[in-house]
Amino acid sequence: MRVSIFTAIIVLIVGLYDLAYAFNRRQQAHHGGIKAFMILGVIFTIGGLVLLIMHWMR
Question: What is the mean predicted confidence (pLDDT) over 23-46?
């Protein structure tokens, strides 16, 4: 399967952005949706790393 380097980088950036958003938001009074952003951030970050590895392994 061909993996574009740009796709891998975008997925990694989205994952890191979700993690940063959840980390910065946990200090506010409203805690709605923080766990969802943390879970999505972890999934996208791991997925981006896997896509980068797949791109370099071909």
Answer: 85
Using DSSP's 3-state secondary structure scheme, residue 3 falls into coil
Average pLDDT over residues 20-24: 89
Do 46 and 15 touch, CB atoms closer than 8 A? yes
Q: In angstroms, rounded to a whole number, what is the distance separating the alpha carbons of residues 39 and 28?
A: 19
* Contact in structure between 55 and 4 (CB atoms under 8 Å): yes
| Separation of alpha carbons 12 and 53, rounded Å | 12
CA atoms within 13 A on the CB side of 26: 10
Q: What is the pTM of this model?
A: 0.84
